[in-house]
Amino acid sequence: MTDTPYSLAELVIVACAEVWRDDGEVMATGIGPLPRIGAGLAKLTFAPAIQTTDGEAWYTSAPVGPGKRTAEPEFEGIANYDRVFSALWSGKRHALVGPVQIDRYGQANISVIGDHKKPKAAMLGARGFPGNSISHPNSFFFPSHNKRAFVEGEVDFVCMAGYNPARYRNGQPPKGLDLRRIITNLCVMDFGGPDHQVRVISLHPGVTFEEVQENTGFPLAKITDEIPTTPAPTAEQLEIIARIDPNNVRASVFKDNPAGDRKAA
Amino acid sequence: MLDKRMTVDDIVDQLSDGMTIGVGGWATRRKPMALIRAIARSNLKDLTLMAGYGGPDIGMLAATGKIRKLVFAFASLDHYPLEPHFRNARQAGAFEVLELDEGLYHWGLRAGAMKLPFLPSRVGIGTDIVTQDGFDFKYVTSPYGDGEELLAMPALVPDVALIHAHRSDERGNILTLSVDALFDELLVRAAKKSYVTVEKIVPTAELDMKANSRFNLVERAMITGVAEAPLGAHPTSAAPDYQLDLKHIKAYVDSAASPEAWADYKAKYIDVPEADYQAAIGGADVVKQLPVPIY
After folding, report:
1. Chains A–B, number of C-beta pairs less than 8 Å apart
2. Total domains, chain B
3. Which of B91, B100, B127 lies closest to A119 in CB terms?
């Protein structure tokens, strides 16, 4: 533990970085500022082999943070559109993405809210979610942990496949389906409960399991009766985060940029 | 001498009601917008639009009521993640959709390019891609020892492909000079006919094909016609010639706020000759100075 004050965004970045800890040499895709900075933190600390991009078409030697850049980064490889699919279908990628809805099976949605033919809200479309989900490991970030995101039934349009036997003609998902972690403003979860049940593995400081459960549309498991607290960023991690994100984009993710330890606040 | 030069309007004259039209590019990169604007102001209707990686091409044709069915994986303006005209049309139930994964879309183009009825894939399995009403997906079982059941992604075969490139000679030897060629090659190979707009038509020698070979995506036999359309991708990018125009894209986004706002945009930027459009956006000097965007 550290006495250095840290924000909720920085706590989340550290939790995001952890998803790549044991991945080896893979393409690490973090969508959105906190997952992207998290991938950078992982690369500069315990996961130096992962490859990250400039957000457009190149792999870079050092992580590129969000927002304005002072210099052009050093490019170490090409990640054009065609190559991204070649890489992801090989399985050598772990993406940390931000869907709009997720359900108890890990099925995730970014396409529509409501009926697919005439949606209440049309969003992006399925993008590459279907292929990602059955090809390589995936983790998730949700900035607002609530029942609109963590839905009671199935998501409105299943873009990412999950652990739902009814969705598979032989009852079994493809071998590549590997859902890892869910990081939110309240906690960190995985799919390690019985039959891949979503399970709380750490609570952010000052958050209770009951609070998480009340904001989730399906029953959650616990890793242990006494759920650990999400580790606070170390002083070294905070320094590296500031280096990756000199524009301080991380301060704009959560309203009023709250402190990471809500007990102390 | 083989001469495939046409005008943008000549190309639109080759299109007809009910056609399946494939559009190249990606969101805000190398969309053939001069052609899209010309289609938007034409009398064409009931189009099936294949735009897997959609941007203002989808939005503009949605807002002008040209689409009967849309085959796509997403519609986005990237820096403005949601395509507002696409949203308005979808939420009004204005057209049918076949929603695909990005990779599955390119797999369908690849099948079309290879003249195969389908290609097997795992992509889509376990999702609502395979349960939607837009298409009755079938499966194949691997004939080898593994016996895995796979999705049979049908070939996507547009009647016409429309893409934007940087250079061409009059025979249709084209160069796509951007870092990322996207999937324009497969789209052209899958389509029955392909029309290309380019920034500049030059003598063959000026293509400097020996130095630029990697930018030549397809044989000229695949190219039906080529039209010179400078700034023809605007407001999307045709880097390295010019970057996307975020200010114009913002104006386009704002035009979805009301029917009046859209009527204003349409009158100023669509229902005008391309020369007036170019003047309205500040001309080539301004567009070529647009800053490189941050991702």
Report:
1. 138
2. 2
3. B91
